[in-house]
Amino acid sequence: MEDLFKKIISHCKEYGFIFPSSEIYDGLSAVYDYGQIGTLLKNNLRDYWWRSMTQINENIVGIDSAIFMHPKIWKASGHVDAFHDPMIDNKDSKKRYRADELIEDYLSKINEKIEKEILKAQKKFGNSFNIDLFLQTNLKVKEYKEKYDSIKERLKQALNNNDLKELKNIIEEEKICCPVSGTCNWTDVRQFNLMFSTQLGPTSDEADLIYLRPETAQGIFVNFLNVYKTGRMKIPFGIAQVGKAFRNEIVARQFIFRMREFEQMEMQFFVKPGEEKKWFKYWKEQRMLWHKTFGLDDKFYRYHDHEKLAHYANAATDIEFLFPFGYKELEGIHSRTDFDLSSHQNYSGKKMSYFDPDTQESYIPYVIETSIGLDRLFLAIICGTYKEEKLEDGSIREILSLPDFIAPIQVAVFPLVKRDGMPEKALEIFEMLQPYFYTFYDEKDSIGRRYRRMDAIGTPYCITIDQETLTHNTVTIRNRDTMIQDRVAIDNIINYLQNKLCISNKLKIIQQNARMALQSL
Ligand code: GAP
Questions:
Q1: Are residues 327 and 460 in the same domain?
Q2: Range of 447's domain?
Q3: Which of 158, 238, 391, 474 is the most exposed place for a label (fewest CB within 10 A)?
Q4: How many CB atoms lie within 10 A of CB 185?
């Protein structure tokens, strides 16, 4: 799986999806640029999310708030006081780690040892192997398991109690070493706030300190009154936003999975207090159904319900995706109670309540949040669709089986050969298609190599202009996945492609899912 992930990263670079940021200056850690093809794919994913929220749901509207916001917002949201991770430095390698992740990695190693013992015993005992009995009776495994459970419990308690000393104790007692220097020469554990700060205006006064937003959600909360009043919104209603967020992650690994500058797509759904449980269930299901519209295998997705809830939440779940490095969070769905609006009311002194015209009641709404990273969605889609396929002639083709409606280049046009008037005809068809689709023209190299290049960036359809085009006004349209070619009249190409590439078919599914679920609420 590590090899597969490396291949995906180099594929993204080679075909213009993603480049390391500032590459000619040796890059900037955990910051990436999207290339000419990646930008198109990212735009399509963003657009699909945006339309699924704001076009399909008549009670969800979108906003675009500023990245710079009043610093009190981050005090009210809890980010100034509580948005931190425990960090530790190795004095020999000078490398910095998250203390909790060092311990988590250590726990995974103990788990691997247990799994190895199980495999060994499975081989030894064959069909008569009883795993439950083995786990209960094998002394070595019992010892590992007890150690695992005790460290896990200590870690949980330490994190809950903000006990940094205890984190260091675990690291020292278990002799957890730095993977680079191999030594256990550690500093104390300190809290590290993940927000980037900067100065607003020309003076560098303490009072001018502001933060780059670590989430887009707060821009929605502080605009709640504006949108509710100017949009004449009635509860339940939602406000969606897409935009950049910034976090000074201590350890940023796994390519665009954890970045320091990334894009979030968040929607806050405001509901009547007491109704939050049913709306949480609704959004939990709808968001999973949305992910399934990309057509990837069900095995890629699973829920992870949170047992330990943030103090302001009364339910939370993650939709996890099976990345090459395991199941990891792709999207979070949280029932955030009235924490944010109440807190902004306290800090700003502005009443954040909603007046219900039907019941004549006034209340601070409860909130269900859906929050997904656009870059993480991008990575999930690339990982879920990248394949190497062995062809009949023994050669290998790299292919991205992207769903048609999000493909960066939707159709390519090729003259079969560079003579006999074929390039001229191909260019004519290319220009005919340009206003309708992202179209690419290519006449270099053999037709086989041109198909391969398009397979690698996920172009679902390739049109070839051949001798028959010149005599019968027809072209072949090759399907990327099946490699089957249809012969289509030039006059019918636009219709043929529009039916297949149209995003509306997917939006119809989103709409039907929502209608059905709303009926049974
Ligand atoms: N407003 C809630 C919130 O921000 P979160 O779980 O911290 O919740 C939501 O982030 C989503 O944002 C995650 O599920 C993930 O997709 C994305 N995300 C968070 N941190 C990220 C990072 N450093 N790099 C890329 N995506 C990130």
A1: no
A2: 391-504
A3: 391
A4: 12
Query: Which atom of ligand 1 has the smallest separation from the CA of 216?
Result: 1
Cβ(332) – ligand 1 distance below 6 Å: yes
Q: What is the pLDDT of residue 204?
A: 65
Residue 513 falls inside a structural domain: no
Amino acid letter, 517: A
Q: Which two tokens stand for residue 163?
A: 């006990």
Residue 177: C-alpha distances to residues 89, 93, 181, 187, 518 (Å): 11, 11, 8, 12, 53
State pLDDT tens for residues 180-203.
999 999 999 999 999 999 998 877
User: Does residue 286 belong to any structural domain of this protein?
Assistant: yes
Residue 264 belongs to domain with CATH number: 3.30.930.10
Check whether residue 255 and residue 354 sit in a common domain. yes
The amino acid that residue 291 corresponds to is H
> Does ligand 1 come within 6 angstroms of the Cβ of 259?
yes
Count of CB atoms situated within 10 Å of the CB of 328: 17
Q: Do 189 and 302 belong to one domain?
A: no
Nearest to 460 by CA among 409, 505, 422, 416: 409
Residue 329 CA: nearest ligand 1 atom is 14
Q: Element (H or E) spanning 322, and its range?
A: strand 315-323
* Each residue's pLDDT tens digit, 295-319: 999 999 999 999 878 888 999 999 9
Q: Which residue has the tokens 């269900």?
A: 368
Provide the greatest CA pair distance for the chain: 81
Return the SS3 of 270.
Answer: strand
CA of 370 to the centre of ligand 1 (A): 11
Whether residue 417 sits in one domain with residue 376: no
How far apart CA 388 and CA 399 sit, in angstroms, is: 6
Question: pTM score > 0.85 for this model?
Answer: yes
Distance CA(42)–CA(382), nearest Å, equals: 11
**To the nearest 10°, the Cα dihedral for 371, 372, 374, 375?**
130
Instruction: Using DSSP, state whether 314 is helix, strand or coil.
Output: coil
Residue 495 falls inside a structural domain? yes
Q: 């500058």: which residue's tokens?
A: 261
β-strand pairing of 485-489 with 474-479 = antiparallel
φ, ψ of residue 53 in degrees (nearest 5):
-85, -60
